[in-house]
Protein 1
Amino acid sequence: MIWKTRRTCQAALIIAAVALSCTASPTRADEPPLRGLDEVNHSKVELQGGFWGPRLKTHHEVTIPHALNCLEADGHVTNFDKAAGVYDGPLRGHHAFDSDIYKALEGALYSLQHFKDPELQKRVDSILDRIVAAQQQDGFLISYFIVNKDLERWGTMRLEHQLYNTGHFFEMAVEDKRLAGRDKILEAARRFADNVDSVFGPGKRYDAPGHEEVELALVKLYRATGEKKYLDLCRFFLDERGHAHGTERKPFTAGPLVVPQRVEGQTDEEYRRARWHASLRWRNGRMQDHKPLIEQDATGHAVRAGYVYSAMADIARFSDAPEYEKAVERIWNDVVSHKMYINGGLGTAQFGDEGFGDPYLLPNRTYCESCAAIAGVLWQHRMNLLKAEAKYADVMELTLYNGMLSGIAISGDKFFYQNPLESKGSERRNWIGLSCCPTNLARIIPQVGGLAYAKDKDNLYVNLFVNGEATVNLDGGKTVRLNQETNYPWDGKVKLTLTPSQASELAVCPRIPGWALGHPVPSDLYRFEKRESLPISLKVNGEKTDGTPDEDGYVHLQRQWKPGDTIELDLPMPVHRVYSHENIQANHGKVSLMRGPIVYCFEAADNPGVDFSKTSIPKTADIQVEHRAELLGGVTVLQTKGLDEQNNPITLTAIPYYAWTNRDKGPMTVWIDETPASK
Ligand code: FUB
Ligand code: ZN
């Protein structure tokens, strides 16, 4: 028999979990959360075929070697040799350089989980050895500050990315332990974390990093080691934002940006540092440090924001921090209701700081950094885990397939830093010195499997529809193997076959995406023309069942599952016309197109000579759907009849937004004028 359960008694469960945590062992690896869901780690999920399989292959064969080659050529590894005293050449690059090699290595470690590649493994191991050889006696490990002995290690915390490097080292080290099974790198991370812990904290130095990241990494380190002090340190860095508890902190009021004159005799380096210091006050309000996090709305640098909001969700999941849960939900509403692009992109160019702009101020020639989309994906994932609600996975999926995926070329070796929704023609770049976006893409793509499922004691949630196989550990040593067959996002048919290790009572909970229920986003920021949804078909072992989700956005299919049981979901995928909230001026009179989770755009390669700014689509025009396996790695394209400036009919072709600029450079737009029905 099949029935649906609502999540009841959640409050009671939380209280019980909090009570239990007081007696639980403090040193269990991968400490489970106090509340919300636990992830199903990417190492347990194999994506084969379908949409992601070929991308993982390209990632392994092209992106990872390309990234490591570029990083080695740019001196990211010799910087560690220099710090270890075994290299006489120059220190190269920026104070955040270490972070980039850590992200690429993290990506390589994920990839090695799925592809046997002794050569790559050797290369990774050798780079890791060179990195840890630079670690100082006291655990400190940032090449820039080891080599530049005259610099204060924890000097200008808000400008020099010390803890941003540190956080990426911790994240990579946790994955090295999990995926490669060795202790050496994780031990180095512990020594470094202990060094950080010896400097910062209550009664020690009160300060917070300008570029957040270390906070979420400390939660990972806590889970991997069971050391509660790392969770406490995360909490400290969160609490410290917007406060001035210690003497090191400068006032927080944001002031005007005053660029200093160069003083005679100042070296380039001295002048650069003077400019940074001068920009400190101006930047205060732009890096989530102007007031306590729990009082903030979505403000400032969008990459930093995504990371710190992730940590807020984590701290609420792993400790008793209801104030952070409340605040991060408020911030989420602010982002999703006022400050997010239809592709899930975050960050306008309004303040020239890669950050959020004013509510509804969403111009289409914009910033939307790839790293901001990635941080957004990580944040939405954690919100989903904290709240066990599908709407967060909706935004995660939207960002993943659109604003994030556009950051990397289909070939795997060209990148965008900015992902605007309208362009006169942009060029993807092979690489760039400070390679935050390419290396972040190198680590997020192979993590997609880990975003697909989540679980708690009674429920197994299916968040992403991805072809492949997962093995999920359940309570009491039981496991269930889940095989997903799907051609998503090109069609909405998904077949799940379950193989539990023994018959198990469990609710398997497929997410019913918001887009299938008539909402492109979980707010009124964007809306479909037709809000009524087409019937969703759901079958268990071939028998029809109700596909209407519960309030949490999932259908809870509870039964004794046995090997070979199947769930078949069919989400109809009509093309939707999308409109913006009337307060988004940039999109007045404009429409965009979506099908399933995919946002479409028009680009010159398919529409040669068309001036999109003078073209419109009649409100009544039919839109044809065609899958073209040979185009752009296989995409579903849309075709419609538009009108040019003289009202002459023209054929318009739209491709998925993520696939733009994989051919010749040329104009592109997501939003296009719509001719009213009466015209
Ligand atoms: O500073 C490190 C990274 O570089 C930031 O996250 C990005 O916005 C870029 O500025
Ligand atoms: Zn970036």
Protein 2
Amino acid sequence: MNLKNLILAFFIFTNASISTLAQVKAPNLLLPVPSKNQLRWQQMEYYAFVHLSVNTYTDMSWGRGDEDPKIFNPEKLDCRQWARICKAAGMKGIILTAKHHSGFCLWPSKYTEYSIKNSPWKNGKGDIVREMANACKEYGLKLGIYLSPWDRNHPDYGKPEYITYFRNQLRELLTNYGEIFEVWFDGANGGSGYYGGANETRKIDRTTYYDWENTYKLVRSLQPNIVIWNDGGDRADLRWVGTEAGYIGETNWSLLNDKGDVPEEMLRYGVENGNAWVPGEVNTSIRPEWFYHPKEDSQVKTLPQLMDTYYNSIGRNATLLLNFPIMPNGLIHPFDEKAVLDFGKAVKTAFAINLIKNSKVVASNVRGNDPKFGANKTIDVSNESYWTTDDEVKTGSLTFNFARPVTFNRFLVQEYIPLGQRVKAFTLEAFVNNQWEEIAKETTIGYKRILRFKTVKATKLRLNITDAKACPLISNIGIYDAPQILVPPVAMRERSGDVRIIPADMESQIFYTLDGSMPTLKSNQYTEPIKTDDGKVLLKCISYDPKSKKTSTLTEAKFDVSKRTWKIVGIEDKEANSLLDGNTDTQWYQKNTLKLPIDLVIDLGRTLKISGFKYLPDQHWWGSGIISNYSFFISENGNDWKQVDEGEFSNIKNNPLWQTKTFSPSKARYIKLRALKNTDDNQTVGYAEIDIITE
Ligand code: FUL
């Protein structure tokens, strides 16, 4: 090497080392951050729940714990069918209710006789957890376990001995069936149960009884890669979102405080300055209830409902846990299968083409001017790279320039959460007709945020991070032109008997039939409330969009007799009529000076043959006065009453749906609903709607 080359080599060497020394550092962690298990779980995004137990055979929401194991016989049970459907729908795992509140075990537990080993299914030789584990393996799905802490069968429930039993069962489930990705500890506890024949109410302190600290230790020692879900009194890895209706807040921090109580509505939003990473999981069923009820065959969620659920869960920084109630024969119902497959297809279609890929992107600031943190990292498809700014810069923008105008109606953005959730506020602008138009103004992003808006055609798009806890880290961005899905109309019957149909938007037309036939564009067009007589009505209707020539799925509504002649007896308050107005959004509360039991008496104005009644509680977020235990009476003259039913509205607090109860038909002109207990154990009683079922 001559001198010139030597000098050159020296320069190259020193420059290289200078640039290594000056290498731009990645941002520091913004605590708290997700654990490896939480991150892996979040990336699964979408997985299934399956509910099957003895109460599948009694048409109840919860088993009481005294059901005979002999009723459990899912003759056609095929976990491969469940796994095939979930896989085809785009899901990544399945959580099985190995033991629900009834206490009945779907595996042959060594520690109880109350299990499938005493059922006729496979002559007591079967093991559904095993079959599920095998099917998951075959279809490349992960397996999760739901083990109800509340056990309405076990004689020791409420005593310390039960905790040993519970842990023994956990040990069986977390040892014998391979890797488990999630364990679900449901906090529901209605108190009453069979309890080995005691038939009583047992109260436990949910914060101390299960000694969660040691139970968690056991879980983690058996399954190091697991995440724990718990809404029953101790902070776990994942949080309930406060509703089973299928959504989480638009503002959604994956944070809570590790100690102290969170006001329940904060489950929906997380806690902005929380000190623990506890992301939300949206759990909801594909039908109104969790267990199979034949009457819900016509209430499987429609495609627009499921798409809403998708955007309101995965699109809001949560995961989606979607439930299939298994039929008594052991299979997923074909309607549910079709609904979830259509849903999977619609999601795939909506996000098939990311139209941002070919844009040129410029950032307002790039950390240390280092291309490693450049704006391009948001469109390179990798989850590992991200755009970020210098430490002191907590706001900034990314501008995407398109060669030709681009048409889109969805925006997807992801933060790089391994370094914490940072963005507090952002806006989105589109450059249309030579000017910037704001199309969205939002708060948090988190792992994934998807926005829906009216279709725009723009030559540029700008994302502005307007507030963040620390320098923002954006790992992915997408824009999509998702096909519109027409929402079916909603129908209600007013007290007068008139049927009102409400379209989802002002541009679509509605066609309907009243004779049970399928509506077409030749059927009656809806223009004003439909006059009917006082009898029952079967309405079928569709929406039609003349522009796109698309038709919605069918709305089918069955209404019992009209309430035109009904009167609430002995109550002056006119507001009480809102419980008969057919509008599920209005409610009425009994006077707060009354003490339970509290009666509601209605004069039907005519004698009818009644075979059941329906109760809908307050439909608002954390509505109160929800009746949990009731008795029901009928009378022909308003003086001599006959009790025709008594029981519980199981799970009504978490899932405040229409409650339907039936009994053998009897003639009556008066009905009386007696509230025996409410879900808050206080004296408040409220109603959104009351209805009857006639022969
Ligand atoms: C609730 C339970 O009471 C329901 O029956 C269902 O299992 C749901 C997932 O959780 O709290």
Protein 3
Amino acid sequence: LASNNDDEKGYELDLFCVPKHYEEDLDRVIIPHGLIMDRTERLARDIVRDMGGHHIVALCVLKGGYKFFADLLDYIKALNQNCDKSVPLTVDFIRLKSYCNDQSTNRVKVIGGDELSTLTGKNVLIVEDIVETGRTMETLLSLLSECNPKMVKVVSLLVKRTPRSSGYRPDYMGFEVPDWFLVGYALDYNEYFRDLSHICILNEKAKVKYKL
Ligand code: IMP
Ligand code: MG
């Protein structure tokens, strides 16, 4: 677990500003905040191009998706304000949980959110932080299909290169990332590190320090 063969190593921590309380916990920065924002701006453009013309219900997968959701919607709003074509946008939230410490558990729990039945007949954009095995998304998509939405698209900021993948790929993705446990930009380890702007590799010491 402590090493893998992926040669994408990101950036040294010292090149960027990280909160003092997390300095000891992180190995490297994989995606700096500014780069996340630039990529998100382009994803917004691609999504509006494909889904535009119809009302979109953006469904945020809490909690890890909240930063990406908020920033993506800001970019879609900016397009709506500045283009000839615009698309009405409403929001909805769902809470799923599949992780304990740094291990994906076999069961995906839905622990909150609105009734999925409100999505019947709608164009739904699911906004997720990271796809690893793909199990979370596959579970959510099968739950959602029971409610007969008109269209469902999935955007995930990150997709992990991992042998544990089921082969599931989202419709849109921000970046492919190496098979490390990543934190920051709302991605957490047992609720810590959501207050970190950059996406970083969590080190082995920190996994013990913040273990439940
Ligand atoms: P999957 O079901 O294995 O695809 O896992 C997806 C979910 O696990 C995501 O929604 C995340 O909440 C969580 N997850 C997977 N990998 C990481 C990671 O590296 N850091 C933080 N959360 C992760
Ligand atoms: Mg998530």
